[in-house]
Design goal:
The protein contains eight helices and 20 strands. The protein is α+β, with helices and mostly antiparallel strands. Keywords: Membrane, Transmembrane, Transmembrane helix.
Length: 394
């Protein structure tokens, strides 16, 4: 008899367990982890009655009921006032609750509770947390404290600051696209401000510059601000490295003349050669040879004497070569033009047989002017020596 009672009790317990296992159960509760401030949020509570009748579905925020759905009531859905919770009844049902215009007060722990009808009134519940995000109130993060140029051995000490947000955004540093080692980061507490408690994130970066940090002469420092999958912004600065200064390239001191100039100077030509060439050019003229032979023959001794004196003056000057220092093209051109004008003037005077002007005086004045002009760039001692020789020749 006693054994029969024990058997019946065991069967009852097993049957109750079977009913519990195969009865009402929650399949899934979906609560968004992050919702942007001002947007809508959808809460889902999926259940399986397994043949039982539904009695009610209730939603709680931080332990306070704000939504109830009872199929037998008319209307079946009703809401309860709660700060930060605005239910959109037109888009809500037994399995879905839609919240509109969420704000920072809407964040919290949400719980769904599903109950079956009599006689069991079986109840199942599940919860999840929702965070309302207030995105940064400015653009990309700001980098401060940097310099436009670094060189090996310098210290980089810079900060990255994100705009005010809720919660605080996550900041990270990258150098040339590579994540910075934790020991080079300087972490600071978030700065809380305003009635809503918005937070400002700051992350510092400090390291000593090495040659490997420069790629093609530049170093790129990038700060990234992120918040889950809702927000991602970055700011990058490119700083230069002090490049080694190249040895200065000495400009050629050689003067460059236009190839089409009739007065191209011959480098290395001495004053003696210039004087002889000029005198010969004055004598070798077709018109002068044909029309003034008698005049030249009459005054040949004076001319020959002048040639000899010019040669002696050139030899006394040590055969000084024409300086090869570079002058500007404009100055060279002006000097060449002046020389050509002088030569044309002298030729004209010879061809027209200017009366009252002796050939020796004309040649002497021309050679004197040319000699004094070209010797102006020499030392004062050399100029005095040339000037004395010229006076003697005259």
């Amino acid at each position: 008899m006693f054994g029969q009672h024990n058997l019946l009790a065991a069967l009852f317990i097993i049957g109750s367990l079977i009913d519990f296992i195969t009865g009402l159960r929650l399949v899934e509760v979906r609560i968004p982890n992050y919702v942007i401030k001002g947007s809508a949020a959808q809460l889902e509570c999926l259940y399986d009655l397994d043949g039982e009748a539904l009695y009610s579905v209730k939603w709680y925020k931080d332990g306070n009921e704000f939504y109830r759905y009872v199929p037998r009531d008319m209307p079946p859905a009703q809401t309860f006032l709660l700060p930060g919770v605005k239910v959109d009844l037109h888009n809500s049902s037994d399995a879905i609750v839609t919240l509109r215009d969420v704000n920072l007060q809407s964040a919290g722990r949400f719980r769904c509770e599903v109950s079956g009808e009599a006689p069991s009134f079986q109840t199942v519940t599940e919860h999840g947390d929702m965070v309302v995000v207030s995105l940064p109130d400015q653009g990309p993060p700001k980098i401060s404290g940097g310099r436009p140029r670094y060189q090996t051995g310098d210290w980089v000490r810079i900060n990255c600051t994100a705009g005010r947000s809720k919660p605080a955004v996550d900041l990270s540093w990258f150098v040339n696209g590579e994540a910075v080692e934790p020991q080079k980061l300087r972490k600071y507490d978030s700065i809380v401000s305003g009635r809503e408690g918005l937070e400002t994130s700051v992350l510092g970066l400090q390291f000593r510059v090495e040659q490997k940090h420069f790629r093609n002469g530049d170093m790129k420092l990038k700060c990234v601000a992120s918040l889950s999958t809702l927000y991602w912004r970055s700011n990058e600065e490119s700083v230069e490295g002090d490049r080694p200064q190249k040895a200065p390239v000495l400009e050629s001191r050689e003067t460059v003349y236009a190839s089409n100039s009739r007065a191209d100077p011959v480098q290395g030509m001495s004053y003696r050669e210039l004087f002889v060439t000029k005198i010969l050019s004055l004598f070798i003229q077709t018109n002068a040879a044909s029309k003034s032979d008698s005049l030249l023959l009459a005054r040949a001794p004076s001319a020959l004497l002048l040639v000899a004196l010019a040669a002696v003056a050139a030899l006394a000057g040590g055969g000084i070569s024409v300086p090869q220092k570079s002058q500007s093209k404009n100055k060279d051109h002006q000097e060449d033009e002046k020389e050509r004008k002088k030569q044309r003037k002298l030729e004209k005077n010879l061809n027209e047989r200017v009366s009252g002007v002796e050939l020796s005086e004309l040649l002497a004045s021309e050679l004197l002017a040319d000699f004094e002009g070209k010797s102006a760039c020499q030392s004062s001692a050399t100029r005095r020596q040339h000037r004395g020789l010229t006076v003697t020749a005259r």
